[in-house]
Amino acid sequence: LFVMNADGSEKVQLTQTPKSEYNAVWHPNGKQIVYLSSESGSVQAWMINSDGTGKTKISDIKDGFSELKFSPKGDKVLFTKEVKIDKVTKDVYPDLDKADGRIITDLMYRHWDTWEDGKYSHIFVADFDGKKITNEKDIMPGEPYDSPLKPFGGLDDIGWTPDGKAIAYTCKKLKGKAYTLSTNSDVYLYTISSGETKNLTEGMPGYDKAPFFSPDGSKMYWLSMERAGFEADKDRLFQLDMQSGEKKYLTEKFDHSPFSFKWIDEGKQLYFVAGVFGTFQIYKMNIETQEFTAITEGMHDYHSVDIASDKLIATRVDMTKPQEIYSVNPETGEATDISLENKHLLDQLTMPTVEKRWIKTTDNKDMLTWVIYPPNFEKNKKYPTILYCEGGPQSPLSQFWSYRWNFSQMASNGYIIVAPNRRGTLTMGQEWTDQISKDNTGQAMKDLLRAIDVMKEEPFINEDKLGAIGASFGGFSVNWLAGNHNGRFKAFISHCGVFNSEMEYMTTEEMFFDNWEKGGAPWEKDNKVAMKSYAGSPHNFVKNWDTPIMIIHGEHDYRIPYTQGLAAFNSAQLLGVPSK
Q1: What is the pTM (predicted TM-score) of this model?
Q2: Sign of CA dihedral 342, 347, 352, 355
Q3: Residue 521, φ and ψ in degrees, nearest 5
Q4: Which of 40, 257, 552, 553 is most buried, with most CB under 10 Å away?
Q5: C-beta separation of 493 from 476 below 8 A
Q6: pLDDT tens-digit map of 140-160
Q7: For residues 199 and 143, what is the distance between their CA atoms, to the nearest angstrom?
Q8: What is the pLDDT of residue 243?
């Protein structure tokens, strides 16, 4: 754990333990820092002065907990903890205490990378007297539901009212088959004094999440998706009047999804971050007029924004630079790297260069395409080139920095990378995002091929050394291209990709996703939309495979089970296609 001044000066390392520290927050008194660590054997809360002195453990919660947030006054705290609710095999058959078999009678028995184990993430509220967290209470007693949402929810799903008397939280209070078929999460309000819980977003059928309050507590704000069953719908910012119950849609004029909200002007304006045309920028919104102002611009992704006096403090990455903390001038958008954690490494490296191109698609639309060139690129040379196929299928192909799919690392091995924002990617407006659903192998695949067809005409690209790579839907794309590329490519890498869409439908965990994307089940033979989707399954074109392919898959991938990777590899082997 480190601390520094808001201008980046006087960096001090506060902790140096064999364990990791995380979830660091200032106590509302502004004097101490509270963080979580498993230093004592289980994850507990620790408090330390900003100069590194006075380190003490302030919690002793049985079996530990996972996340923590103080009330505005600092006299209470909420945290999340796994609670056993459902019976498992050992509970039903206590004489078989060593058995690891599972008894399954309903769907949603595993999620993302984890089997259901009878435990659920619950929110607890507790007292804090400045020295110890005590009197913890489960605010969801006996409920077989998770908050935050699994698998990627966090503390943004939970918020205190400004007076500290109530907690708003996100939860999808469904179970089994009903859970797997629905995206209908809601925002609930728990009142501490009475223990009562109220659904504040009842009747809104899509995802409702990320509640927060106006400074005076009279309004609640949250993100809401309109369409039931569609996880990639636009996140709309809504306002709820806590007295009248009136709901108001605030971002109708903004065709993008905001997040990371911070109040200014006593609740009259909001700073937030949003993905817009392949980058993530900081914006300001006037609540009354619903007008939006871009604070920053450029080829980078902001991940969060906060306020420190007359400056914004934000985290930012781009394709050639890992995350750092920046000070941002809210008037000009000018940003200064104040953490400089990676400077000593980057100073030793010649990094790739990134170019932003707009390519005309086969249906005459403009498609943003990132082109990443190797270090010391020379136009008079010819380079092997990789087509990067984005996953999702609805996800942002922005200026991201990844420790798995890292464009700088790829390009530094002597490749040019072509990364098109094909139909379905986020940040390009909701209409563009919607155009891949129920048409997974239509215009999106034409977009991918169009990008490489245009780029291979450049004199510096070696047309005889083209490859294609991708993960998840990107792996699906590679598997499909392997049977439909007409000799364009010389090699493929498919990571955790769908090979047989019918089998994937029958073995995945979040059924709402495939129902939306495919348009129905593979046995609905009279459903023309669904039948068109399954006709595009990559396995239907495997007889055309003739190009070397590497297949990567994780055995804990329950979204796209690893048998998809086995099926693709086995098929390639049986067809005599070089593969591993």
Answers
A1: 0.97
A2: positive
A3: -90, 155
A4: 257
A5: no
A6: 999 999 999 999 999 999 999
A7: 15
A8: 98
147, 123 contact by CB (below 8 A) = yes
Give the N- to C-terminal CA distance of the chain in Å, as an integer: 42
Determine the Cα–Cα distance for residues 57 and 48; give it in Å rounded to an integer. 9
Q: Which of 359, 357, 386 is nearest to 450 (CA)?
A: 359
User: How far apart, in whole angstroms, are the C-alpha atoms of residue 504 and residue 559?
Assistant: 8
DSSP annotation string for 321-362: EEEEEEEE-TTT--EEE---TTHHHHTT----EEEEEEEE-T
Which pair of tokens denotes residue 315? 């985290």
Helix, strand, coil percentages for the chain (3-state, nearest 5): 15, 35, 50
Mean pLDDT of 512-519: 98
| pLDDT in the model for residue 532 | 98
- Joined together, the tokens standing for residue 81 give 């903890």
CA of 244: how far to CAs of 162, 194, 218, 240, 268, in Å? Answer: 18, 21, 10, 8, 20
Average pLDDT over residues 414-437: 98
pLDDT in tens, 459-471: 999 999 999 999 9
CB 80 within 8 A of CB 122: yes
The pair of three-digit structure tokens given for residue 471, joined into one six-digit string: 């993960």
Would you say 552 and 405 are in contact if contact means Cβ atoms under 8 Å apart? no
Cα separation, 481 vs 538, whole angstroms: 8
Which of 400, 420, 203, 430 minimizes the C-alpha distance to 315?
400
Rounded to whole angstroms, the maximal C-alpha distance in the chain is 74
**Burial status of residue 503 (CB atoms within 10 A of its CB: 0-12, 13-18, 19 or more):** middle
| Per-residue confidence (pLDDT) for residue 165, from 0 to 100 | 98
Q: If DSSP codes are grouped into helix, strand and coil, which group holds residue 264?
A: strand
* Tokens, residue 262: 């911070």
Residue 439: the pLDDT is 98
* Phi, psi angles (nearest 5°) of residue 92: -75, -40
pLDDT in tens, 80-134: 999 999 999 999 999 999 999 999 999 999 999 999 999 999 999 999 999 999 9
